[in-house]
Integrase (Bacillus weihaiensis), 287 residues
Amino acid sequence: MKNADYLEAYRDYLVEEEKSQGTIDSYTTHVKGFLDFVNKDIKKVKRTDLTTYKEHLKQRKLKVSSINSKLVGIKQFIDFLNERFELSINARVKQEKTQKQYTLKDEELLSTADYELLISTIQDAGDIRAKALFEAMYFSGMRISEALQLRVDHVQTGKRIIEDIKGKGGKYRDIYISDKLLTSLRSYLKIRKQPYADTTKLLFVGERGPLSRQTAHNMMKKYAHMANIESTKAHVHNLRHLFGLRLAEQGVPIQDIAKYMGHTSIEVTKIYLEKPQSYYSSLIDQL
C-alpha cells in the first residue's frame, strides 16, 4: 500500500469512529502535511523524522498549541497503522511544553446582555425550535452534540436528570434539566413536526430529519447577525460557556461546576473561575 492508501484508510476509520467532519479534516490534513514533508514511505519513518518535522514547525513560528495539535494527529495516525496493519512503526516525539493560561477573551464571549438580545431576536422571528435549542445549552451547559441527542420521550416524561446522553469522548454523563428549560422544550414539542418518512425520536428535527450541528451553527450565525452581535461571538458553544460563567458568578463550588459541565478534570473547569482579559488589562492601568 502507498501512503495515500493508508491515509484513505485512516479517514475511513475516523468516519467509523463517528468523529466530526472538522476533526476528520484536521487530522488528515496534519498527516498529509507530515507525509509531504518527509517524502518517504510511512513504513520507513523514524523518530528522527518526527523530530525534524517538529523543528520545521517551530521555525515557521507556529503557536505551541498548533504544533502539538499536529503532532497528536500524526501520533494517532501511526498508532492506527500499527494496530490495523501491524506495521511496527517506532516513531515517537515529545510535544512542546506550554504553560496553560486560563484566560477568557472578551471579544469571543457572549455576555448575558448578548444572550438576552439573541433570544429576543429569535422570539420576534417566531423560531420556537431555535429558542428551545439555544436555551437547552444556556440553562444546562450541554454541548451542541449533547443537545442534539435529546429525545421526544425525555420531554414527554419530564425527566429532570437525563443519564443516557453521550458526552465528550463517547462517555455518558448526567444532564440536569431545570423547570425553565423543561417549559421551553415542551413549547417546542407542541409545534414539532415529525420529518416525512423518518422514524427518528430525536427532539430537534428539520424537514429532512434530525438537526445537524452545522445547521445549529448556521442558526446561531443567522440570529447573531440579525441581533447585531459580533461574529466572533456567534458560536453555539458560547451558550455553554455562559452557563459555566453564571455558575461561577453565583459562587457554586468548582467541583459542582465540573459536574454540571461534564468535566472529568477540575483543571478544565478553572477557566470559569478566571476573570476575562479586560479585567486584567484595566487592573494594571490602575497601578
The mean pLDDT is 89.
